[in-house]
Amino acid sequence: MNTSKKAKKIVAVLLVVVLILLAVVFFLGKIPVGIRHGSPSSGLPGAATNGLDIVVAARSQIGVTVSYDPSYQKLDYPNGDVPRGRGVCSDVVIRALRDARGIDLQKLVHEDIKAHFIMYPSLTRWLMFKADANIDHRRVLNLERFFGRSGWSLEVTHDAEYYLPGDIVTCRLGGEVPHIMIVSDRKSPRGIPLAIHNIGGGTREEDCLFEYKITGHYRLEPDGNAER
User: Fold this and answer.
1) Parent domain of 144
2) What is the pLDDT of residue 4?
3) Residue 109: CB partners within 8 Å, gap ≥ 6?
4) Cα three-residue angle 208-209-215, rounded to 5 degrees
5) Residue 200, by phi and psi: left (phi above 0), alpha (psi -120 to 50) or beta?
6) In a domain, 163, yes or no
């Protein structure tokens, strides 16, 4: 075998290896993690009131965050934030958990992606090769992965009674655009919990919980501890 053929063979083998690794990364980024089975309220005493502090913190953003701004921002670290007058859907959750429970999703998500990069869709979705503390925690797909790895996942259902105040719900808008909301303690005339979110125009409390395809349902334990 001449040198040219050997080189082509080596390149072909390397290409196959790269494709296999990419397939593995893609697969690991898709599988659900930390799903609990059974009733979403089982094992949580007083579950209906455990998340009221999160609701209050989310609702306090209404009238403060008045615009939707998805642009990349250079943030302080830890506890970094864009100006509260603007943000995206994930910022509602980030701010609510920080204000209500002292949970810094920026730091927690950043550290988990650094330690377990292959478990996140950073490479396959955004062609990123390392963690970025400025943006990783503001991406819904990363939050879904982190919440699952933290053991906060519940089964997705369309039974309104299983969605309690302070629960976090992820969904897909038209075109499979990821979105995230916080379940309110207020309900619509139909008995469906309202949701607090920023889908454009700032943080609002609206009757939209079942308007989109739900992809994740998450609940913090009473102490809200995200450390694993």
Assistant:
1) 32-218
2) 74
3) 136, 137, 142, 143, 146
4) 130
5) left
6) yes
Q: Which residue has the tokens 């309110």?
A: 184
30-89 pLDDT per residue, tens:
444 444 434 444 444 465 678 999 999 999 999 999 999 999 999 999 999 999 999 999
Whole-prediction pTM: 0.82
In one-letter notation, the amino acid at residue 12 is A
Order of strands, edge to edge, in the sheet holding 193-197? 153-154, 213-218, 168-173, 177-187, 193-197, 204-206
Pairing of strands 168-173, 177-187: antiparallel
Establish if 59 belongs to a structural domain: yes
**pLDDT averages per 10-residue partition of the chain, 228 residues:** 68 64 54 44 57 97 97 97 98 98 97 96 94 98 96 94 96 94 97 97 97 96 57
**For the chain, what is the domain count?**
1
Which CATH number characterizes residue 87's domain? 3.90.1720.10
Q: What is the DSSP string of 80-148?
A: ----TTEE-HHHHHHHHHHHHH---HHHHHHHHHHHSGGGSTHHHHH--SS--TTTGGG-HHHHHHHHH
Q: Is the dihedral of CA 132, 120, 81, 174 positive or negative?
A: positive
